[in-house]
Design a protein that fits this description.
The protein is mainly beta. It folds into 4 domains: 355 residues, 3 Solenoid (Pectate Lyase C-like), CATH 2.160.20.10; 64 residues, no CATH class; 67 residues, Immunoglobulin-like; 86 residues, Immunoglobulin-like (Sandwich), CATH 2.60.40. The chain is 4% helix and 46% strand. Helix 1 crosses helix 2. The relative contact order is 0.04. The N terminus is likely disordered.
């Protein structure tokens, strides 16, 4: 790797910071609109190289594609408490892409750091336009370079995305790569220290690695590396692939809570591999709380420990599927002083749960060995048939099991099995599981602290047709009803007032595992009935009136709170309307109701039903008669019926207005009775003479 002269950069920085040009601090903008402080990222980088900084600097980059190559040497003034940030202005990592098309392999990087300290790239996308290109390259002597919430987009079969070549020189320290996406390339991260002193405290956390051809992350000659919470996915049938690889690493390297899914893997592939990477007594390497799934038809290993001492392998769940007779969930080769506890080793590929060669002083207990092949394991060339033989040969494993782990799916290694519940031994340093849930004491075997689980939404439900049935699926991560709605609650209503029966299927998700149940609902029809038709009485002549409700209901409630099946109407104190209301309840608890409207008026002579709401004239009339109905009380339409003196109906009209001129020219001379109805209720009547 060829870099610019660092001494020259330092001289320039000191020269320009000595009062000739003000050092940078605060917030600056980068963009191509002409209104930003800098028109390119390179211009901003040159500014901090030439001027240095006096306090924290933020460079906000406007959305767009920036085809640039960036080189960062030592930046004067950059400290832990005053770093330099390069980040997208809108906080969206996909809105800003910095990419470069190299022409010379030796400087085929998009961004390079050498002797650089306290630089943060945040919420950015970085890429390369060639398969030989490396997106980010670290030289020697870097400290606290942070790549946060970024996307590294490489080429299929391309180079490593973030790399540090195996060069001699000052080690890098406190390098942090978090919450980022690595797509394609040969390796997502490949960081090597070629000198005598290792790189120190490298943090690789909560990243997603997709379809690298060699490895997700590879660290060589690192001390106290911390690799946690990463998701590694490979579907490209890569041979010799390794999800997480550690070579010649030292100190208490921590490999925790990673989820590795290799669904179409080639020969000689590993989920996690530790090669010549040892801890020390009291400062052991920890491989814990990891999910490792591999589907293969060639030799592969879930966890490989080779020539590595003082390693603790705790609470991992490993599942192999496919068909590979020599495959193993864990292989332990020429190591010593290591402990293997509380792991699920499930080999459904006709291979071994454990392959052990040259192991010394190894503790192996409280693990679950599930296999579908002929033998559980191979110890120094001796085949171990089953758990009983494992206990005999190893003189250990008294607390181990050999049961089907009941994984959620082949690749989702959450379990819901009583068999593994509280069968492990408590390890205080791993008191939380892969999901952050608190472990029991004693804990479950495997990476997931699970509980046995049977899902039921509850008993079948019924309701009256006038009500709703609210189905509560319970508290889960996700929901799916049969109509594809995805809420916790389902509001079910009847379509008609009749008996209806339905079946609902609900699926709920817990930790990515789906469970289902069926519930039946029924709606019961509400009672339907009709009270007597609306009617009218003369108040001054009224004596009594009864209204009969429907028969054979257990409960009646009238508007006056009486509870008999028959309502006895008492004489009101004044004219007007009396509303009689009845509610009945059937044996299912469903109710129905109806109303009858009774109009009381004062009656006098032939016009005894004449209403104060109606006026008419002239009387006598000749060819027309004017009828007016009080529009403040009633709204049209109305029905007009005319009878002769013999009581025979001679005219029938619908009146659509409140003021009407009625044509009676066709009627013979005589006396006629006019009756006006509103919704079948008699508003009033009057006598008129036609002459």
């Amino acid at each position: 790797m060829k870099f610019k002269n660092i001494l020259f950069a330092l001289i320039i920085s000191l020269f320009f910071s000595n009062g000739l040009f003000a050092q940078l601090y605060g917030t600056y903008t980068i963009g191509k609109s002409g209104t930003e402080d800098y028109s390119s990222v390179s211009a901003a980088v040159n500014a901090i190289i030439n001027k240095g900084i006096s306090n924290t600097v933020f460079f906000k980059i406007s959305p767009g594609v920036y085809e640039e190559q960036l080189y960062f040497p030592y930046i004067l003034g950059a400290e832990v408490y005053s770093p330099v940030f390069f980040e997208s202005a809108d906080g969206d990592s996909s809105s800003v892409l910095i990419t470069f098309k190299p022409t010379v392999d030796s400087i085929a990087y998009t961004v390079a750091f050498e002797n650089t300290r306290h630089i943060v790239f945040r919420n950015l996308s970085l890429g390369t336009d060639t398969t030989s290109g490396r997106i980010v390259e670290f030289g020697r002597g870097c400290m606290n370079i942070q790549l946060l919430n970024c996307q590294f987009i490489g080429k299929v079969d391309g180079n490593a995305l973030v790399s540090a070549p195996c060069l001699d020189g000052a080690s890098n320290q406190y390098m942090m790569i978090r919450n980022s996406l690595f797509l394609n390339g040969s390796q997502g991260i490949s960081m090597c220290q070629g000198g005598q002193l290792p790189d120190i405290n490298t943090f690789i956390e909560n990243n997603v690695f997709v379809n690298q051809s060699i490895s997700g992350s590879y660290l060589k000659n690192h001390k106290e590396a911390y690799v946690k919470g990463n998701t590694i996915i490979n579907t490209i049938n890569a041979s010799g692939y390794c999800g997480l690889k550690f070579d010649n690493c030292s100190g208490s390297t921590k490999i925790l809570n990673n989820n590795i899914t290799l669904s179409n893997i080639g020969i000689n592939s590993f989920g996690i591999r530790l090669f010549k990477s040892s801890g020390t007594l009291g400062d052991e390497v920890i491989i814990g709380n990891n999910f490792i799934y591999q589907n293969t038809y060639n030799w592969c290993v879930g966890i490989n420990i080779t020539t590595s001492d003082f390693t603790n392998i705790y609470h991992n769940s490993v599942h192999l599927t496919g068909y590979a007779t020599g495959s193993a969930c864990i292989s332990y080769i020429f190591g010593k002083y290591s402990t293997v506890k509380n792991n699920i080793f499930a080999n459904s590929a006709n291979g071994y749960t454990i392959l052990q060669t040259g192991a010394q002083n190894m503790v192996n207990d409280h693990n679950n060995h599930y296999f579908n092949g002929s033998n559980l394991g191979d110890f120094d060339g001796t085949l171990i048939k089953d758990l009983t033989e494992l206990k005999t040969v190893s003189q250990q494993a008294s607390g181990s099991l050999s049961v089907y782990p009941q994984f959620c799916t082949d690749s989702n290694l959450h379990t819901f099995s009583d068999s593994l519940n509280m069968k492990g031994v408590y390890i205080s340093s791993l008191n939380l599981d892969i999901d952050g849930d608190t472990r029991n004491n004693p804990p479950d075997i495997g990476a997931d602290e699970s509980t046995s689980f049977f899902y039921s939404i509850g008993p079948d439900r019924s309701a009256c047709a006038s009500d709703s049935i609210i189905l509560d699926a319970g508290v889960f991560d996700a929901y799916l009803w049969q109509d594809f709605s995805s809420d916790r609650f389902y509001n079910h209503k009847a379509t008609n007032n009749k008996y209806e029966k339905d079946t609902f299927i609900i699926q709920v998700s817990k930790k990515g595992c789906w469970f289902s149940d069926t519930i039946h609902t029924e709606f019961l029809a509400n009672p339907e009935f009709k009270l007597d038709a609306d009617t009218q009485f003369c108040l001054n002549k009224f004596t009594n009136y009864q209204i009969s409700g429907p028969t054979d209901y257990p409960s009646y409630l009238w508007s006056d709170n009486s509870q008999d099946s028959i309502f006895k109407l008492t004489k009101p104190n004044d004219t007007g309307y009396v509303q009689v209301y009845l509610t009945v309840v059937d044996s299912n608890g469903c109710s129905g109701s109806d109303t009858s409207l009774i109009h009381f008026i004062q009656c006098v002579g032939i016009d005894e039903h004449k209403s104060a709401y109606i006026s008419y004239g002239p009387n006598p009339s000749s060819n027309t008669i004017f009828i007016s109905i009080n529009e403040a009380m009633f709204l049209p339409p109305y029905q007009l019926l005319v009878y002769n003196s013999m009581g025979k109906e001679v005219m029938k009209n619908t009146i659509k207005q409140n003021n009407n001129l009625i044509d009676v020219s066709n009627l013979p001379n005589g006396i006629y009775i006019f009756k006006i109805y509103h919704h079948q209720s008699l508003l009033g009547q009057f006598k008129s003479i036609k002459q």
